[in-house]
Design a protein that fits this description.
Chains: A alpha+beta (about 700), B mainly alpha (about 150), C mainly beta (about 325)
CATH topology of one domain in chain A: Methylamine Dehydrogenase, Chain H
Helix content of chain A: 10-25%
Structural class of chain B: mainly alpha
Distance between the termini of chain B: 177 Å
CATH superfamily of one domain in chain A: YVTN repeat-like/Quinoprotein amine dehydrogenase
Order of helices and strands of chain B: HH
Strand content of chain B: under 5%
Oligomer: heterotrimer
Structural class of chain A: alpha+beta
CATH class of one domain in chain A: Mainly Beta
Largest interface: A-B, 33 and 27 residues
Chain lengths: ~700, ~150, ~325
Amino acid sequence: MAPHSSFDDDEDIDFSDLREQFEVRLDEGLDAFVVVDGCPVVPEENRGKLIKFLSKKLSEVGKIKADSVTMPLNAETNKTEGYAFVEYETPEQALAACKQLSGIPLDRKHTIAINKLTDIEHFGREGRIKEEYVEPEIEPYVEREHFRSWLSEPNARDQFVMYRGESVGVFWNRKKDQPEPVVDRQHWTESFVQWSPQGTYLTSVHAQGVQLWGGPSWKRVMRFAHPAANLVDFSPNENYIVTWSNRPISIPENPPPGFPLSADEDGKNFIVWDIKTGNLLRSFTSLEAANDADEGVKALGRKKINWPVFKWSSDDKYVARVLPGQAIQIYETPSMMLLGKKAVKVEGVVDFEWSPSIPEGKGKSKPEQMLTYWTPEMNNQTARVTLMNIPSQTIVRTRNLVNVSDCKLHWQSEGKYLCVKVDRHTKTKKSTFTSLEFFRVKEKNIPVEIVELKQTVINFAWEPKGDRFVFITTDEAVQGATVAPKTNIAFYAPEKIKNGVGEFCLVKTVEKKNSNAIYWSPKGRFVLIATVHSQQSFDLEFWDCEFEGEKQKPETKNKEVAANLMLMGASEHYGVTDVEWDPTGRYVATSVSMWRHTMENGYHLWDFKGTLLREEHIDRFKQLLWRPRPPTMLSKEEQKTIRKNLREYSRQFDEEDTFEAETANREVVEARKRQLDEWRAWRERVEKDLKAQ
Amino acid sequence: KEHEEALARRTIIEKKKEAAESALLKKEKEEAQQRMIRAEEARAAEAARVAEQQKKRELERLRQEQEKIRKEELKKQLDELSLDTKIDVENLEDLDSNQLRAMKLAQLEKEKREMADKLRITGKRIDHLERAYRREEVKILPQDLER
Amino acid sequence: MRPILLQGHERSLTQIKYNKDGDLLFSTAKDHVICAWYSVNGERLGTYHGHQGALWTVDIDPTSTLLATGAADNTIKIWDVKTGKSLKTWDFPTAVKRVEFSEDGTLLLAVTEARMGFLGTLVVFPIIVDVEAQQADAPLFTITFRESKATVAAWSYLNKYIITGHEDGSVSQYDGKSGELIQDIQAHEIGTAGQITDIQMAPDRTYFVTASKDKTAKIIDVDNLKVLKTFVTDTPLNTAALTPKKDFVILGGGQEARDVTTTSQRQGKFEARFYHKIFEDEIGRVRGHFGPLNTIAVHPQGTGYASGGEDGYVRVHHFDKPYFDFTYEVERMKA
């Protein structure tokens, strides 16, 4: 299984090899050579023809020296080997060939891959490739198969990554016990770490760019040379990655051979990359004229811009950003061309969000992606929220709103509902209040339900995969007051009705709190309400929305609601800055990062009901992130069968757990016996010796 | 002379008669007075008795009122306990506030225990469900990797 | 276990020592005064005046006749325990951080500070355990620390070795007669993060316990310097003591005042921590101090302990029955 912490040759994981690439190796004289792989295998007599054909193709980017295409023959079969060596006139042309011609189809069956000969030599020299010439693709198919190996852990444990001091380590959660290290490396990252959304890759961020790591050996999978990258965002299905730097990229006038970026990237801030091939798809400049161009944006914990800027549709097909006040630019992948060749013009547009899932196709219409955006009041027109299908750009619903100061768009995780949090001002503009507008996207004509409030909502969160939500309200802060105003927590659930989802009803309000953050279990049902980033209070409240005990009465009306709310536990974690549920909703980690303050850095581990399992104080602790899991591979039916037979599984697990506990106990007792015996034997010997002296 | 004597005697007799009459009158008067006093006394006694009785009744009513309030109070407290243990409401006299408080505490303790127990079972179930899912998932993982 | 609070010092405590019988307790603090107390009830027996600077260290000879103290006024003084009279003063170029009588009371070691061009040293004086006697002026020998200065030191059994604990986390073993270096080990984290803050010998002086800023304490064999046990805590340690009678160690420490940014007491972890000496498990904590624990001393008969804090208090504890009853199952089985 996974290897334990290794301080092997990969310990120094910077871009030194990239740096080496920058060095001009003229003496080798091989910089102009490329290896073309993936050519058809032909008998000797057809070789000339193939070389001619290939030469033509390869000449598109640069001049090939006469007779410089070498296509070796296999001695046994007397056929070509499927690859060729080619010499260009200049190293620049060779590089251009690698960049532009690699991956293009030669014919229907053959796609060529082009690599610089020096690269291959380079890899060969490092011992990564044994023979002089083997499949030059850095990412062989076999290796990819292991990327999800962590999912096969037999005890259903989960991993988390921890960044503290200069070390980054991945560990198995062992509840009360010391986490079991999987890998631990010094200087693995320079600013922060981040998991890809399905947990396949661990991202490290360096001055030279971003690297992805994965597989059982935690080898580097890919790197993206975006100098001084500050922030990273993945597409939901891990096909693409967006990197951003506050510093515009600058390309030297005469880039050395092997320089990873081309002149196209000069002055750009964003780069969209293809993860599998490592190819740069397109780069963009920031729209906000480098306002954030200071060093303050170093880490996620301190981000200033609204990240992500480029937002992905749930199927990775589109990535879009808003051109404030003017349009939404929607790009198609992988071409990165504007959808319909132009941006979607929306006068005044402030913000937009993709629905997190494709709506199920109803009737004949082909399911489309959906996004929603809002525009403020302007030109005698009210503010407006619009839902639009993509790619058809059909508007499916609009709603006009008055007295709007701001809107926030909150999609429920399955795209069933959209909650628009509308901050409104009274006519006199003296005070503000919030109304929540709920779009029932999956219902006919998308009806809207409104919850009007007298206070402002400072935080709102949908239950993942659920119909419930929690929000926190507060009165406006009194000017000059040193303490933040008290907050109220409101729990809502739909009324229980026979078919469908009933009206959203208030289940409970908890008043006069300091809480400011809502953390739903990723599986729904449990929610942790916390006070984070506060100087005075550090409350953690663990709520169950489906308590299996006596039915609690909801606060309003005599309706039956689809919830039974119960406070399972309440606690504190001094100085808490971050809260993270494990992907299964069984455990939750609260942590204190030195990025916020340096008091009591470390983490606490709780179970879902608020029992403290473990606390660890770690100097210079920065991050703890649970490794996400891809969506389950089990079908709905399979899951149902498992649930039906849970009793049977449970019996086995109980047996296993008892056995393990007993073994562990026995081991502890045995170890103590041994320690005691050793100590006593040692004492006896020492005392005897002492007498003799 | 005889007449005189007779007259004198008559006068004496008259006088005696008069005296006797006035004595009788006086005596009757006195007796009447006595009767009146007695009657007065009797009436006063009766009034006092009635007053006493009334006072007694009033006290009794008050006591009953208080008892009722106390009972209601206890009952209310008991209701708050959501009456897990069946208590003979008729026997409320045997209970005092302290006992009730103790019961309340016990009740709270019990609720806490019950909640802990319920949550323990919930926790075990979500853990086992996750493990069961994974156990099945591991079996199809190789297929997924082939994709 | 209700502690007796000894209020006599005005500044933070630096060292506490019981005498051999355990009836007396001596304490030094940064306020220039040495206090003597009856350990049973905390009544103050007396004070010793004469030092001109903060006191760093104190020890008493096995017969409770002489008291030795070292201070920031660059002197060691020998006192008549009974009268409080200063009998002898040795002068040094730098402060004296640690003094200790040998097992038989005939030798006194002292650790001096490295400062202003002077290297840290360890000096050994011959001692005549008699208040009338004239003590020697010159040391028997001096060890000079050229690399990392010693912070603490102690005598082994039969004065065979001198063990020193250093600023860089190392522990050295010197010949007790000649002062020659025999061996050294990197017992704790390397560098000032692993600075050794205390060394206390077991009753028979065949092993000792160290306390370090690296948040651990270790039990080390005095003969071969083998680390036998390690106790891991979550706070820098200032002191560690071994308990006779029970197989425990008591550790004390806490985040230093300058590192504690809030006034909250829970922040600094100002607790005495009890660990099982053989199993290395934490078994309990005793709260009470308002600042880091600087020094812990255990009653020679193992009936109690005293702790001195940065807060200026000495807390004397007498163990009660549950303390003595506490045993692990394996201990009962093997009893």
